[in-house]
Specification:
The chain is α/β, with parallel strands linked by helices. It has nine helices and eleven strands. It has a domain at 5-218: Rossmann fold (3-Layer(aba) Sandwich), CATH 3.40.50.1440. It has helices spanning 12-19, 72-85, 103-116, 132-152, 169-186, 196-203, 205-208, 224-227, 280-300, and strands at residues 5-11, 33-40, 55-57, 91-97, 120-128, 156-163, 191-192, 215-221, 235-240, 255-261, 270-276. It has an eleven-stranded mixed β-sheet with strand order 3-2-1-4-5-6-8-11-9-10-7, with helices on both faces.
């Protein structure tokens, strides 16, 4: 079959930084060829190494300052124009931070439009909770993805990582790159016995299982024993190096498909792409508790004593002389 292509949409600061690694990569056997797009409300994350034709910056905006409402309407109005300039492929990856102000709006709205068009799309995202606003943004982004799934009546599948205390930025970036690399294997169209429709049915699990469309998490494993940590998977796609090697039998998902690397992958004998909702509630609960704690602290903060009082006289230009 012809080499698969994957469109990588880097949305906002984190999305743009992650997407840069895939610029200019040529066809490599066993991988889907990446076509990279950079979408943002500011040029501050975009340098001269990025081709102009790969960039879409909204006119009249200069960042969102972590406030998701700031440019929501302008972003929403521009989504179809963005996809006209940066057209999707059969398989698409949308990368963004759940905790920022621009990517967490651009990313979900691109996902919504791709789902409306029946395209295969996977979210690759990271959230954080170093402040009240980033924790609230992360929570509201997950809620937005859930609402999109319900509204469009199609699953939203997300590889999501949370940057907690002690977690380095490079660790999170490495996990996101790992997910993108593995998805490029899956979308390569060069895996024996695994075709495009197998992958689409894996993603659109509401069509292939009894599970209704909803937000679900994607985890990727290179060790079959680790997969057993997922107690009730919805759908699993697997890739193996050899036809005769032992295949995954537990846990048992409602839908599964498997293929074989036609091009050997150094150091990897198998990959399992597991869709489930097992840890989704845990992510919601953790963020909810964090936001509640921040709000509790805020409301318990003592008010600062007034410095300027009614006894003070101010000039027309607000000076106390």
């Amino acid at each position: 079959m012809s080499q698969g292509k994957v469109r990588i949409y880097g949305a906002g600061g984190l999305g743009n930084n992650i997407a840069k690694r895939y610029l200019g990569q040529k066809e490599v056997a066993g991988f889907a060829t990446p076509l990279v797009s950079f979408v943002d409300t500011s040029r501050s994350n975009l340098d001269s190494t990025i081709p102009t034709e790969a960039i879409f910056v909204l006119e009249g905006t200069d960042g969102s300052g972590k406030v998701r409402r700031e440019n929501h309407q302008q972003i929403s109005d521009a989504i179809k124009q963005i996809l006209l300039a940066q057209p999707p492929e059969d398989f698409n990856i949308v990368v963004f931070s759940a905790s920022g102000g621009s990517g967490s709006v651009i990313g979900p709205l691109i996902v919504r439009e791709l789902l409306e068009r029946g395209k295969a799309v996977v979210v690759v995202s990271a959230g954080s909770a170093e402040s009240t606003i980033t924790a609230q943004n992360s929570l509201n982004t997950l809620k937005s993805l859930s609402a999109i799934s319900k509204g469009v009546k199609a699953p939203v599948v997300a590889f999501y990582r949370h940057s907690g205390e002690g977690t380095t930025r490079s660790t999170i970036d490495g996990q996101l790159h790992f997910a993108i690399t593995c998805l490029r294997y899956l979308a390569s169209r060069q895996n024996a016995e695994l075709d495009t429709m197998d992958v689409l049915h894996w993603l659109r699990f509401n069509k292939s299982t009894s599970v209704e469309a909803q937000l679900a998490l994607l985890d990727i494993y290179s060790d079959a024993e680790k997969v057993k940590e997922i107690l009730d998977p919805i759908a699993i796609a697997s890739l193996y190096a050899e036809r005769d090697q032992a295949q995954l039998h537990t846990p048992v998902p409602e839908y599964s498909c498997a293929g074989f690397f036609q091009t050997p992958v150094e150091g990897i004998s198998e990959l399992h792409y597991v869709i489930s909702t097992q840890f989704l509630g845990q992510s919601y609960d953790t963020l909810n508790r964090t936001v509640e704690q921040f709000v509790e602290r805020r409301e318990g903060r003592s008010a600062a004593k007034a410095i300027v009082t009614d006894k003070d006289e101010t000039t027309e230009d607000f000076l106390v002389l």
